[in-house]
Specification:
The protein is an alpha/beta fold and about 240 residues long. It has 8 helices and 8 strands; from the N terminus they run H-H-E-H-E-H-E-H-E-H-E-H-H-E-E-E. It has helices at about 10-15, 30-45, 65-70, 85-95, 105-115, 135-145, 160-170, 190-200, and strands at about 55-60, 75-80, 100-105, 120-125, 145-155, 200-210, 215-220, 230-235. It has an 8-stranded mixed β-sheet with strand order 3-2-1-4-5-8-6-7. Helix 6 (about 135-145) crosses helix 8 (about 190-200).
């Protein structure tokens, strides 16, 4: 199987073009900086009992989440297909004195060579950018060890999500670059949970990242799947 078949080259080229924007919190990637403390806390909470967990961030981009994980004492690996974004990530991590293993790899490729080698897998704001998100979810399930944790975040496929995440965020408020999202690639939570269940993952919880356009602040709403949502799964431990 060609592990690169699940890569949208147009998407990769688009992220290459905006790669220099990753670490500008006042620019087009500013939303990711704003929500990163919330999503990082969601990921880190169930990992607190694990000493120096090994975590891979699938679709790491410029390394915003990977750096937060590394600062928290985790062994962070970041994979992406945008070579220019990875170069930005490497340079920024070096400047911060952080040791992060960045690789040009797909989730499927990494799962083929390192199955079950990670305590946790994060795949945030990435599923809606690939042709076959179910295949990415399956690869993430194979990457994590039994008893390990997997986290996905994406945008719900609803009219409200189209109105707020595409029309509002990209064209009205302009907090995201135009063309960042396509409605036909947005993912309903039931779809995600179905794909995850088929891949052997067990659903734990989900929350929504809620944006207030009046004060321009984000908050997390637990047990809710609104426009932007993040979900936590585990790979059940092997029965003895």
């Amino acid at each position: 199987m060609n592990q690169h078949c699940n890569v949208d080259e147009d998407e990769v080229a688009r992220f290459d073009r905006v790669s220099q924007l990753w670490w500008d919190p006042a620019g087009k990637m500013g939303m990711l900086h704003a929500i990163n403390p919330l999503r990082s806390a969601f990921v880190m909470e169930p990992l607190a009992a694990i000493a120096r967990p090994r975590v891979v961030d699938v679709g790491c981009g410029g390394g915003i989440l990977a750096e937060a994980l590394a600062r928290a004492g985790m062994q962070a690996v970041g994979i992406d297909q945008s070579t220019q974004s990875l170069e930005v990530a490497r340079r920024h991590a070096l400047g911060q004195g952080l040791d992060i293993d960045y690789r040009i790899q797909t989730a499927e490729e990494l799962a083929a060579c390192e199955p079950g080698r990670f305590d946790a897998v994060t795949c945030l704001e990435m599923l809606e950018h690939v042709p076959d998100p179910a295949a990415v979810i399956d690869a993430c399930a194979r990457l994590v060890r039994p008893g390990g944790h997997v986290f996905f975040s994406t945008i719900n496929r609803t009219f409200k999500a189209w109105l707020f995440a595409i029309v509002g965020a990209e064209y009205v408020l302009r907090i995201l670059p135009h063309g960042t999202h396509r409605y036909d690639r947005l993912i309903h939570p039931l779809q995600m949970r179905g794909w995850a269940r088929h891949s052997g993952l067990q659903f734990v919880r989900s929350s929504s990242l809620m944006y207030n356009p009046f004060n321009r602040r984000w908050r997390i709403a637990h047990d809710r799947e609104d426009v932007n949502y993040i979900a936590h799964f585990i790979r059940p431990a092997v029965a003895r």
